[in-house]
Design goal:
Blueprint (H helix, E strand, L loop, with lengths): L4 E6 L7 H12 L5 E6 L5 H13 L3 H23 L5 H17 L6 H8 L2 H16 L4 E3 L19 H17 L3 E5 L2 E3 L5 E3 L5 H11 L4 E6 L4 E2 L11 E2 L1 E3 H9 L10 H6 L4 E5 L8 E4 L9 E15 L7 H14 L3 E6 L4 E6 L4 H9 L3 E15 L3 H8 L2 E8 L3 E8 L10
Parallel strand pairs: 1-2, 1-7, 2-4, 3-4, 7-11, 10-12
Antiparallel strand pairs: 5-6, 8-9, 11-12, 13-15, 13-16, 14-15, 16-18, 17-18
Helix pairs in contact: 2-3, 2-5, 3-4, 3-6, 4-6, 7-8, 11-12
Amino acid sequence: MKKELKVFKFGGASLKDPAAMRNVASILRNYEGERLIVIASATSGTTNELEEVVGAHQSGDQAKAMEKLNAIRQRHYEITRELLGEKHPVYDQLNDHLVAVEWVLEEEPHENYDYIYDQIVPVGELISSQIMAAFLSADGLPTHWLDARDVVLTDDIFREGWVKWEETEERARRHALPLLDKGGFVMTQGFIGSTTENFSTTLGREGSDYTAAIFSYCLNAEGMYIWKDVPGVLTADPRLFENVTKLDVLSYREAIEMTYYGAKVIHPKTIKPLQNKNIPLYVKSFIDPTGGGTVISDEIVDKYPPMVTVEKEQALCTISARDFSFVAEHHINRMFKVITDLRLQVNMMQNTALSFNVCFNDIDDKVDRFAEILEKDFKVNINRGLETITIRHYDELTLESLKLGKMVLVEERLPQTILMVVKTLPVIKRKDNK
């Protein structure tokens, strides 16, 4: 009888340098002999650097784009040298991936920025996973490298590809299961997929968790494990708040709510595929692998403490009709057609008789494109530099403490959740500094 399959995901922080990769190997050694698929992110900071490569290329500065790509190349070669020495077949594999990006950079800037983004940025995951697979094999843990683009099939909306589940499930069984049957681990990439025309796509920023859920769903894993630099799911981001506590158990429903409102520990799309097949998710620490972590499952929890999520880089769009008419259903239908086409993430929406307010993540040019499309028929005002603060299972003391120093622009209150769009107020000092 075959052993049950597990899916592990390691993010960029756990693969950032040779010491981190050795730590991952030490964790995986505890699972030697098990049927295990390992999902690797790009090394820490690499995706941001590749986005700079894309930006330089699209602005016509090919020399700068190539310079930044070469810096990425040299850093990964240095990691490889420390782990595997000067001569190893993996250098040829890394070079093949990087040369494919060079070919893209030799072309003229493309009219579709998102398309070019998805042909360049996936190289981060491809080269980090190649290095890690080669190191594991050299370290006595035989590992088969699998290109995730051969498995995860998406539509052709670049930078936010939607998975074609039936075809992806068939491809996962066809490509991954034979490798597992050979023995050893299977190493593949998070965040990336491909179209039917074999163009690379990405699944949305920080989408490696989602990839792990895709493989878990398609291959009926007995459990999915995310390895983080925190002890588990916490009641708030410890970088922003003091006195946070770890949640030992979390229901699927609660996890979906938390991630939807911006909890960074798990990608928002991750939970639903697992819930559909009742696959538990374990959030563990790669710093303390023996710690209990957090288990997310169908278990019902009677009571939760207040849980806070903060989303920075938010834009609040206020939209009104140019003829001073009411914002009616046909207006909202038009707006949501644009939102759907651009695949914008809506974090809050609220309408009055004369305006419609909608809050988006403001991390690329999509908000400006949204406004540009609508401005022919509507007045669109964009308020940037905002945050959303969400409190699940709130109490008044927590709520009031989070409002300190903030101007609340929009507030939505539900029985268990409060969501606020806020602007940080400037600190005004007297001339005598009192």
